[in-house]
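Revision sheet: structure tokens.
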Amino acid sequence: MSKIPKLPTISKENRFGQFHNRPISRTIANGLSDVDKKNLITNHTRPLRNGPPVSAAAPRIKRSATAPSSTTIPNNVTKVEKRSTVAPKIPPYDFKARFNDLLEKHKKMKSEFTDLKDKHLEVSDEYEKIKETFQSCSNERDILKANLSVKTLEYDEIKVNFDVMKTENEDLQRKTKLLEEVTFSLKQKSFELDQVQTDLNSLRRRHSSLQDEAEALRVLTDQLKKKCIEYDKLKLDFTEAQENIIKYKTDSEALQNILASMYKEQRDLRNAIQDLKGNIRVYCRIRPPLSIEVTKPLFNLNVVDACSIEVEKIELLNSARKTKPQLFTFDGIFTPHASQEDVFAEVSSMVQSALDGYNVCIFAYGQTGSGKTYTMEGGCGTEQYGIIPRAFNMIFTCMEDLKRMGWELTIKASFLEIYNEVIYDLLNPSKDQENHEIKMVNSKGGDVYVSNLKEEEVKSSHEFIRLMIFAQRNRQTAATLNNERSSRSHSVAQIKIAAINEKRKEKYTSNLNLVDLAGSESGKTTQRMDETKHINRSLSELSKVILSLQTNQMHIPYRNSKLTHLLMPSLGGNSKTLMLVNINQFDECFSETLNSLRFATKVNNCRVVKAKKNLCMVDT
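Predicted:
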């Protein structure tokens, strides 16, 4: 609260007794209006009735917003302020003092009014600004509400679509699972149906025979009393029938022994013929151009006879360089018109050797895009099947004949690949695989095996096809300049055959290795140098091993590469080997074709130890 200034002290001439004798100052009278002068005279000249006149209280001035609160001021200071705020009483006869007091109050009220008016203008400006801000915020709020409603509708629609898609996905997963279960159950039911059909046929035969016997017994029962005389004759006939049955059993056993001996002689003759042909046999297959490759230039390739071909590069007419045709001879030539069935007809004898108990290896060699994978695995449809699926169909077909002769066979299959000198299990879909190492079966023999390799027992050709397709998906492939989908690793399909004959007390085990080598490729035609270096290095080591075998060296560098180490029993051990060299007739591939044919010639000139059958007696 602002302090009221003290009034001036009353002098002798301002006393009550001398008031009416002193004239009023004109300067003070001239500063007031007529209405103020009248009110002032009326209020100050009003006679006192109930007591002395009381001066009007000064108007209260609002506390400033920045004034300190009373709690922060000491008590003694507060008391002093209270004492100082009390104005001294003005005597009722001192009109000048009263008038001065009123002037001071009027000035203060006028200044406060001016301050309040200024504050009112500031507050009005702020109010207008806040009002405009509020209006803009209201507009933004309306826009946001409209956007929120639109987004809410979109969210609801997306949520409904998500629920529908989720339901469809769950339905598809359930149908897929149900389809897998139905497929598996159908396979089982198909196998069970074959067994039931066999049992039904045997039961039908027995039923028909029992019906005939029942009819005969019925007739005999009706005629028993009439034909008592013929009893002795029937008894003699029965005795003769028993003797015939014993004779037929003896003849059946003799025929089975003759059949077994004939099968053994046939097997020995078949393997003797293969031994005469050589334990390492080489065939050449010429890939026909595809429909999109018809316009590519070709070099001269002449099939001289069933076992020889000539190749010659076509030179320009004005070129001074001339090349002579080069002749290559192998165990057989497959022309571009040869089908998959024609190729397997020559290979089937090697598969039969595996069924006879010999270790067999069949591998395809050639540059990228020459048709190795098609030769080994084939395409879609039974007519396009390659060597691997046809070999398995043949094995299961021969299993039925072997079962009739008393043999029980167990087939196990495994698939692996050698990619950048690392062995991967193609039946294991996990990326983090265990280490696979090539180890010797024993210290004496030359057979090897791969550790931590998954083997699946196969009971039908359909199961093997399923495993082969699964392994194909896990194999490393990539696009090259020569092939859109080129194999970038060496693939090996291993089939282990275990057979036992309890009656003859014999058993044998054999391995059938079907190898699809990665394509040889020069550094100028590849975009994946790291893979190409490993592939060419392993094929180069394979060439060194073939050269060492051809020159009868003491040390054969099998362990320089995972590929040669794995093929060690097939190249120089107890195994029969067949190599298919694949070539194409494109002019741009002439140098690689020559390299493949020269390598195949080296392999064909190798002479290895005669393969032995893995036969042993069953422990009793």
